[in-house]
Amino acid sequence: MAFYSKDVDSAFHGAGAKPGLEIWCIEDLRLVPVPKYSHGKFYSGSAYVVLSTSVLKNGPPQHDIHYWMGNDANEVDSALASDRALELDAALGSCTVQYREVQGQETEKFLSYFKPCVIPVEGVYSSQPGNSNGETNQVTLLTCKGDHVVHVKEVPFSRSSLNHNDVFILETASKIFLFSGCNSSIQERAKALEVVQYIKENRHAGNCEVAIIEDGKLVGDSDVGEFWSLFGGYAPIPRDSALAGQQQVDSPVILFWINLQGKLSQIGSDSLDKDMLEKNKCYMLDCGAEVFVWMGRNTSITERKTSISAAEDFLRKHDMSSRTHLTFLTEGLETSMFKSYFNSWPQTAQTKLYDEGREKVAAIFKQQGYEVKELPEEDLQSYINCRGTLKVWQVNGHELSLIPVSEQTKLYSGDCYIVQYTYPGIERDESLFYAWLGHRSVLEDRADAIFHMSAIVDSTRGDPVMAQVTENREPVQFFLIFQTLIVYKGGISAGYKKFIAESGIDDDTYDEKKTALFRVQGTSPENMQAIQVDHVSSSLNSSYCYILQNGTSVFTWIGNLTLSRDHDLLDRMLELINPTWQPISVREGSEPDSFWSSLGGKTEYPREKEMKKFIEDQHLFKFTSTEGDFKVKEIYSFTQDDLTTEDVLVLDCHKEIYVWVGRHSTIKSKQVALNLGLTFWKKNFLWRLLYMLLLKAMSHHFSHASLNGIPQRQICMAIRLSGSLLP
């Protein structure tokens, strides 16, 4: 929601109301809008403000502001663009992330808006029609770097600019040459070809030839001869020009407090904690290649302007201005990369401002007597055939016991199980393996479960998926495979029995002769569970139905917020647990004393409907690991084309994490993939429990529909090295 005032530039009125890009340029010390047909065309003598608005799955729109400064832009225009970016942020409710963009050093997020590339034009932008703005048709040599977004940069037109590691484009008035270094990647060559096509269509109106030049191919081809003649003839490219300047030295991460006068005071380095950031202050985080300015929610516009100026002065004084990315963050809108520099960022996401506002508005309407309806529940559909064959083994130390079909939907919290699900795929049967770890199972049984599952997978034909899930963190797909699941307290494995005996813990393993309380949950007969919980009244919740068993007496308790669907599931589950029971049906608020006595007395329990939480959008990261050092780079505006066979990619769905392992990546075995996933989990880079799906798959198996339709609810870890996608 925008909050415009008289102090906001009139050019910003209505900004951010619709999804997409809006661009303004500084011209004669004022903002002028850039028409859509000129988006992506930036003049090196000008400064711009770019607003990207995207609509999320729920909540308000997301805004990102970039102010772009051409290499030839004057200081006044650049400073004015910075001020206008902060002004636009305030007009949009201080709910944006701001980025400083320097020509030739743009962030990948910025470049992702302008596919396939941004090629700055010499001169100054003019809003007057018919102005050529200094464009010329001289011979130009460009270098293209990047395998997801392309950094296009003009380099001196000289043979010495060429090397074996990059891809180059030589543009002349009548012909475009694409020169690919012999060490460049397939993906970089493909992206550069897109740039060539873009130049041909936009600079030459489609009227020019294109020639592909192979590195190392000697004269003998007319195109090759013509290419080298432009450089004065062929000469070998030195082999040692390859990696110069590419080695990056890790810089210490330093946190500064910025006072009201713009003075920086170091308050920490490397080992940082979120609690160091106070709401009424601004801070600068220097990470070497990137610098962040964090602005507390209780800071004023004046304080924020001072902090931004202080950060820009810091870059200039340390000769970091052109090569360092500068990002401005308001408290509560921190990016993944910013959080990664802190040791202890809260595991549970804080309530979004949108959620807080929605709850307050709902409460006000309820007080006024209006009916407030919740959003419809998300459809929990399966992305694979759930009519396959199910096998379940219980882990008992080094032994596995196959559970009879009639009992395989009954699990114990103190035990571990291996689940094999085989279902018909597109061309063949597919197999999915889960290691289900009860939340009270012992470490030895958990390790044995992983070992046994790996052994079974290695002996299984095809390309099975391995998944590790923990009780209470199961993905919806797990429940849909079982359809009906009962989880009892306690355990029957030797490891669990030994543990409770040595620890002096009472054995609470389910027994029909003992008191037991089951919470019934689910959405349909194909997705329903009964979970045994502590038999105390605080375990109740008005949003659920329960089964209370106390010797020969059985109660069914119906919460006031439950639906007729929940009542149907209650009846079905009661029949499954014990068809001989004759229950006493009790509605919340009309319980007999004997009911409360069975639960040890009446106490408080949750009585309000659980609000649907804010659903985050997915993020895709490129993941690299070198000698135990993890590096993650976000890929913005991603599509299926970003699933490159040479990379390891992390798709963050917040409640689930998928790790996609390209067929030609350095990950070559299931065990290596599993170790990588576990190490990544322990590093906790994304600050939440992980659902990890490692896929060694060809790109046509990972469709756009799969990317957009991945369920975002539960947590587990899965490994896959080839074959089709497990949704």
UniProtKB/TrEMBL annotation:
Residues 31-111, 149-216, 271-324, 634-674 form the Gelsolin-like domain. It comes from the Eukaryota. InterPro entries: ADF-H/Gelsolin-like_dom_sf, Gelsolin-like_dom, Villin/Gelsolin. CDD domains: gelsolin_S1_like (cd11290), gelsolin_S2_like (cd11289), gelsolin_S3_like (cd11292), gelsolin_S4_like (cd11293), gelsolin_S5_like (cd11288). SUPFAM superfamilies: Actin depolymerizing proteins. Keywords: Repeat. Pfam families: Gelsolin. GO terms for molecular function: actin filament binding. The keyword Ribosomal protein does not apply. This is Villin-1 isoform X4. It comes from Herrania umbratica. The lineage of its organism: Eukaryota, Viridiplantae, Streptophyta, Embryophyta, Tracheophyta.
